[in-house]
Amino acid sequence: MKKLKTVILCGSAMSSGLIVEDIKSIANKFNVEVEIECFASLRFKNYDYSNLDVVVLAPQVKSQEADIRKYLDEKNIALPIYTIPMRDYGLVRGEKILKDLLQVIESTETGE
């Protein structure tokens, strides 16, 4: 079984909590063990990024991507950052988001 460990950086974890629950509920369908949680993006420097596969941004905080990337680079943390498309976020499309995350990880592992 493939494992996925990630965090959704978001505003207040209200809507993102719905995404987390939806992804967890369908992960077995894709033979994936998921560890996923929400964390306030304004406190991104306080998060422990060790052992993550990918950092996920909720669409409402995508403007912070450059700051988050700079911080990760300064800490020598090589992680891809994926921003959830607004439509998928708003419609709570956990399955689509999970597929996208698995594709991002696969691309990172193969160097594409």
Index terms:
single chain, 112 residues, alpha/beta, 4-stranded parallel sheet, 4 helices, globular
Walk me through the structure.
The chain has 112 residues and is an alpha/beta fold. The protein has 4 helices and 4 strands, in the order E-H-E-E-H-E-H-H. The protein has helices at 14-26, 65-74, 86-90, 94-110, and strands at 2-10, 32-40, 54-57, 81-83. The protein has a 4-stranded parallel beta sheet, with helices on one face. Helix 1 (14-26) packs across helix 4 (94-110). It is globular. The two termini are 23 Å apart. The model has no long low-confidence stretch (mean pLDDT 94).
State Rg.
13 Å
Structural class: alpha/beta
Oligomer description: single chain
Helix share, percent? 40-55%
Largest sheet: 4 strands, parallel
Distance between the termini: 23 Å
Report the portion of residues in β strands: 15-25%
Task: Indicate the mean pLDDT.
Answer: 94
Annotation, overall tally of beta strands: 4
Which strands sit side by side, in order, in the main sheet?
A: 2-1-3-4
The unreliable regions are: none
The number of helical elements comes to 4
Order of helices and strands: EHEEHEHH
Write the layout of secondary structure elements.
Blueprint: E1 2-10, H1 14-26, E2 32-40, E3 54-57, H2 65-74, E4 81-83, H3 86-90, H4 94-110
Parallel strand pairs: 1-2, 1-3, 3-4
Q: What's the gist of this structure?
A:
With 112 residues, this protein is of the alpha/beta class.
